[in-house]
Each structure stands twice: as C-alpha cells, then as structure tokens.
Write a structure and sequence with these properties.
single chain, about 220 residues, mainly beta, Porin, twelve-stranded antiparallel β-barrel, 1 helix
Length: about 220
Amino acid sequence: MKRSRTTLAAALATTLAAVCLTTKPAEAAWVRAEAFASAQGIIPDIKAATDTDIGPANAAYFFRNRASVAYDGTAKNFMLHELGLGELYGFRALLQGIIPETEVIPRAGVSYHATVEIDKDMALSIFTAVVSSMSSSPIVEWLTIPSFRMPGISERGFGIDLEHLLWANQDSVTGAIRARIGHEILDGFSAGIGTETDYGVGQKPTAQVGGYVRFEK
C-alpha cells in the first residue's frame, strides 16, 4: 500500500509538472530564492510557480525545496510538488506530493488567496491552505502566509512576510512561525532580518534569529 501511494504521488507530480511547464503559461513564471542564516545554520529556500489554461480551467504548478544545513554538516531537506486546479473566488483544489527526506507522501486539500491594494504602492495579501496526507493515520497541515508591501527608501519598498505552519494528527500538534522584514536593495534583490520558531503542545519552543538575502522575479 505504501509503495502504491508513493508511485501514485510521483506519477501525479511528474505528469502535472509536465503539463504546466510545456503548455503556454497564462501568466509569467515566478521564482524566489532565499538564504536565511543564523547562529544555528543556513536555510536555503527555493520556490517556483507557473500556471496555464487547460480548456476552460486553470492549472497552477508550484515547486518548493527547503533545506536546513547546520554548521556541523547536519542537513535536512524538504521538497514539494503541487498542482492547483481551478480558481473560484480565490479558492483552488490542491494535489501535492511532498518529499520530506526520501519518501514521497501524497496529499490533497484546498487553498485560498486574496490581495487588497491599499493604494498603488501598498498592498496586503493572504494565502492559506489546508491539506491532509492520504494515509490511514493522516497528518493535517494548515499553512497561512500574510504579506505586506509598502513604499521604502527611494523607489524601492519594504516587505513583511509571515509564514505560519500547523501540523496535527491524533497524537500531536506542532507548528512553525517564520518571519521576514526586509528592503529591496536592487531590482529583484532584497535583504533583511528574520526569525524561525518551532513549537508544539507540551514542547519548549526553539527560535532562530538571523538575516536573509532574497532574489525574486
């Protein structure tokens, strides 16, 4: 059963990526590469997305690879392939294949995205998604990403990004809060300070404070 779920998730991720990347995109692709450094280590985080129209429906492909590398050489890696299907009032159905280390785990759920433009140089956006692993003992994940953009020095702007993750199953509830506050220094390049906090029910929170550099286009 485990092998069949892994094979199904891998096949879905490969097929969906091929469809989105070989058909004409409805919008330009988006890429963000970030490196966060603290006293505990370095966390490189790469995200990429594109979307396309398939008949009357829209399909969006999203990829993420996030690693954690300690200064003693210890490393962990997490990879995500996601397909968003349709878009109705900001809602999409989601199919995912995640690879926390070497095993592929299929997941499904729904997401919502909205942006409020306060004026031409200031905007607030919110993205949230709830997904569950397809297993006999499912793990539910709730992701929330609010972000705020405002004018900064010269013609470049300040940015505030938060990412809150909550994982729950029948045995435990854990979470992570990631915050970034930075300023664009060159076209597409920004830098600033950030924090990473992990917590859980009955667990002592652990926090990292550091700085980051980011490229986005």
